[in-house]
Amino acid sequence: MKYLQNEFESCYEEKKSKFIAFFMPYDKFNDVMKRLKEEHPKARHFVYAYRYLNEFDQIVENCSDDGEPRGTSGKPSLAVLSGAQIINSAVIIVRYFGGVKLGTGGLVRAYSSSVNEVINISELFEYKKLETAKLKCDYSELSKLEYLLKQENITIKSKDFLEEIIVNIELSEKELKDLLLKLPRNIILQ
């Protein structure tokens, strides 16, 4: 599964109609929708589709045709996201009607193509379920630990400076197993 961290945009034209696709992380969906409705007051449709993981690791999906004939825009857009195995992401397609009716097949192709185009220009990352862990070390070991975590691309969430240093990290289960093999003996997993 893949996800993205930034917003991307692309424009697709079909028989004088413009389909501007905005692809974003799911948590920005509501803000971007509001912004787009303000920026594009003359647009005819704001079609969307999104997929995200809930707290039970289940994929939640939703889409809207926003006035287009039923099943011709939202569902095809969602199908593209699903087919590309994209999660925690949303796409909004702003349509400006060009005066020529595309028919149901034409709409399905146009919306699918616009979503595919924006995915193709996007920077996607491989999704991995993250866990938190705490490492305990002496002050003298902190720089070695930070260097090791940086080499392994493990995120340090916070550091607590007590009698010893507690380093809170976020990583996948596999990364944790690999890290435990590389940790010096005096750095302890709590």
Strand content: 35-45%
The assigned CATH architecture of the largest domain is: 2-Layer Sandwich
CATH overall fold name of the largest domain:
Ribosomal Protein S5, domain 2
* Coarse shape: elongated
The share of residues in helices is: 25-40%
The CATH superfamily of the largest domain turns out to be Impact, N-terminal domain
Termini separation: 30 Å
- What's the CATH class of the largest domain, please? Alpha Beta
What is the N-to-C order of secondary-structure elements (H for helix, E for strand)? Answer: EEEHEEHEHEEHEEHE
**Total domains:** 2
Number of strands: 11
Summarize the main sheet: 5 strands, antiparallel
- Number of helices in the DSSP assignment: 5
The largest sheet has its strands arranged as 2-3-6-4-5
Instruction: Point out poorly predicted stretches.
Output: none
Return the average pLDDT rounded to an integer. Answer: 85
Radius of gyration: 22 Å
InterPro entries: EFG_III/V, Impact, Impact_N, Impact_N_sf, Impact_YigZ-like, Ribosomal_Su5_D2-typ_SF, UPF0029_Impact_C
Domain Impact N-terminal: 15-119
Organism: Poseidonibacter ostreae
Domain UPF0029: 135-178
